[in-house]
Design a protein that fits this description.
Number of strands: 15
Shape: globular
Radius of gyration: 20 Å
Strand order of the largest sheet: 1-2-3-4-5-7-12-13
Organism: Streptomyces edwardsiae
CATH class: Alpha Beta
Protein name: Beta-glucosidase
Family: Belongs to the glycosyl hydrolase 1 family.
Largest sheet: 8 strands, parallel, barrel
GO molecular function, one term: beta-glucosidase activity
Structural class: alpha/beta
Distance between the termini: 24 Å
CATH superfamily: Glycosidases
Catalytic activity: Hydrolysis of terminal, non-reducing beta-D-glucosyl residues with release of beta-D-glucose
Number of helices: 14
Oligomer: single chain
C-alpha cells in the first residue's frame, strides 16, 4: 500500500525521467532497414501474441503528442533509444533531429541510448567487427545531435541481450548457444568502450551505460545452493560490471573471451561519468534440479549449473516478477561496498512493472516503494543522481508482444489513442513535490 507520508526529498539536481526504446514504440518500419527483431518476429511462435513492432505506438508519426505528454508529466529528462537500422536508412537521423528539437523546446532533456537490442539485420555480435561498426554509427549520431544532447547512454542491458537472445534463444536473434554466447558479451563491452571514445572525441562529457542488476538469493544455506547462486550472480552482476569498473573479468572468465582480452579491457574500462542500473526484482537461485524450468516465460534448460526458483511471500506483477523494493537498497549498497570509489554516480535508468488497467494502483504502490528504497540507499551513502520509470507508455514488449503493459500511459494499439493512467497522475504530483520543496 502507498503510504500517506510524502516520499523523502532527493538531492538537489536529481534527474527525474521516463524511458522507452526505439523498436518498442517507433513503428514506421518502412522508413528503416530491418533489424534482427524484424527477422525474429517473422518466425512462427516466437512472440506470444504473434505480433510485430511494425506499427507499435507509431511514435515516429506521433512524437509531438508524446513530447507534449512528457512536458505535462513534468519530467526533467526522457531516455529514448536511437534505432541503428533507422539511422542506416536514407534520412534516418532526420527523425531524431526533429525529436530532439521538440524535447528541447519542451524543456525536457534528451538522453539517447545508442543500442537497445535492435541490431541491424546482417550484423552479428559474435563478430568482432560489429563493435567497430557500432563506434562508427555512434560517431555519426553524435556528430548530428551532439550540439543539443549532453547526456548519452551507450548500451542497454547487454546481459539480457546476451542471455535471452544468444544463449537461450527466446529473444532475437534466437540463438541457443548457452555458454558459447560469451563472445557476444565481450564484443558488446568492446563496442561500449569504443563508443565512449567516439563520444569523447565528439565533445561529450556525460556518458554512461544501462546494465541490468539485481540481488541473487540462494535457495537455502546448503553449500550447493549458495555456489549456484554465486555463479548466477556473477553472470548477472559481475560479468559486465567488473570489466567496466575494475578493468578485468571475474576469475576464470577472461580466458573464455575472444581476441586480445588484455588490450580490449583497456578500451572497455574507459572512465564513465555515471553508471546506469536497470532494476526490477531479485532472483532466487539453487543448485541444478535436472529438469527444464519455466522462469517468467523463459525456458531454462536442465543442464545449466543453476536453477531459478520462485520467491515466495511477496506480491507479483502481471509478469510474475516478485515485488521486493528493499532488494534495490540491498543491490546498491552491495555495489558501493564491492566497487568503492571505482563506482561512478549511479542513475536508475529503468524501474517499473507490468500491470493492466487505467486505475493502476499496484503500479503506484510499486513505484512508491522502490523510490523509498532508493532514498534509503542514498541515506546509506550511495551517490544516486537520477531515476527513470520504465516506461512512458505501453509498448511492444519483445517476446511478450502486446500482452504486458509497463506504461504510465495506456495505448490503444488499434486506434493509437493515448490515455494517462492513475500512475501518470501520481508521478506528475510526485515530481511537482520534489521540484517545489
Amino acid at each position: 500500500m502507498v503510504t500517506t507520508n510524502p516520499i523523502p526529498r532527493f538531492p538537489a539536481g536529481f534527474l527525474w525521467g521516463v524511458s522507452t526504446s526505439a523498436h518498442q514504440i517507433e513503428g514506421a518500419v518502412e522508413a528503416r532497414e530491418p533489424s534482427v527483431w524484424d527477422v525474429f518476429t517473422d518466425g512462427p511462435g516466437r512472440v506470444r501474441d504473434g505480433s510485430t513492432a511494425a506499427v507499435a505506438c507509431d511514435h515516429v508519426h506521433r512524437y509531438r503528442e508524446d513530447v507534449a505528454l512528457l512536458a505535462d508529466l513534468g519530467v526533467d529528462a526522457y531516455r529514448f533509444s536511437v534505432s541503428w537500422p533507422r539511422v542506416r536508412a536514407k534520412g534516418g537521423l532526420d527523425f531524431y533531429d526533429r525529436l530532439v528539437d521538440e524535447l528541447c523546446a519542451a524543456g525536457v532533456r534528451p538522453v539517447p541510448t545508442l543500442f537497445h537490442w535492435d541490431l541491424p539485420a546482417g550484423l552479428d555480435w559474435l563478430e568482432r567487427d560489429t563493435a567497430r561498426r557500432f563506434a562508427e554509427y555512434v560517431a555519426e549520431v553524435a556528430g548530428r545531435l551532439g550540439d543539443r544532447v549532453t547526456k548519452w547512454t551507450t548500451l542497454n542491458e547487454p546481459a539480457e541481450h546476451t542471455l535471452l537472445g544468444h544463449a537461450l534463444g527466446v529473444h532475437a536473434p534466437g540463438r541457443n548457444l548457452l555458454f558459447d554466447a560469451l563472445p557476444v558479451a565481450h564484443h558488446q563491452l568492446l563496442a561500449h568502450g569504443l563508443a565512449v571514445r567516439a563520444l569523447r572525441a565528439a565533445g561529450a562529457d556525460d556518458i554512461g551505460i544501462a546494465n541490468s542488476h539485481g540481488p541473487t538469493w540462494p535457495a537455502s544455506d546448503d553449500e550447493a545452493d549458495r555456489a549456484a547462486a554465486g555463479f548466477y550472480g556473477l553472470l548477472l552482476n559481475r560479468l559486465f560490471a567488473d570489466p567496466l569498473l575494475l578493468g578485468h573479468y571475474p576469475d576464470g572468465i577472461g580466458e573464455l573471451m575472444p581476441g586480445d582480452v588484455e588490450q580490449d579491457l583497456k578500451v572497455i574500462a574507459e572512465p564513465l561519468d555515471w553508471y546506469g542500473v536497470n532494476y526490477y526484482a531479485p532472483t532466487r537461485v539453487g543448485a541444478p534440479q535436472g529438469t527444464e524450468i519455466d522462469f517468467g516465460g523463459v525456458r531454462m534448460p536442465a543442464d545449466l549449473p543453476f536453477s531459478v526458483r520462485e520467491i515466495e511471500g511477496y506480491p507479483v506483477t502481471d509478469f510474475g516478477w516478485p515485488v521486493v523494493p528493499e532488494a534495490l537498497t540491498e543491490l546498491l549498497t552491495a555495489f558501493r561496498a564491492r566497487y568503492g570509489d571505482r563506482l561512478p554516480p549511479v542513475v536508475i535508468t529503468e524501474n517499473g512493472c507490468a500491470y493492466d488497467g487505467l486505475d493502476d494502483r499496484d503500479r503506484i504502490t510499486y513505484l512508491d516503494g522502490h523510490l523509498r528504497a532508493l532514498h534509503r540507499a542514498v541515506e546509506a551513502g550511495v551517490d544516486v543522481r537520477g531515476y527513470f520509470v520504465w516506461s512512458l507508455m505501453d509498448n511492444f514488449e519483445w517476446a511478450e508482444g502486446y500482452a504486458r503493459r509497463f506504461g504510465l500511459i495506456h495505448v490503444d494499439f488499434a486506434t493509437q489513442e493515448r490515455t494517462p493512467k492513475a500512475s501518470y497522475d501520481w508521478y506528475r504530483k510526485l515530481l511537482r513535490e520534489q521540484h517545489d520543496r
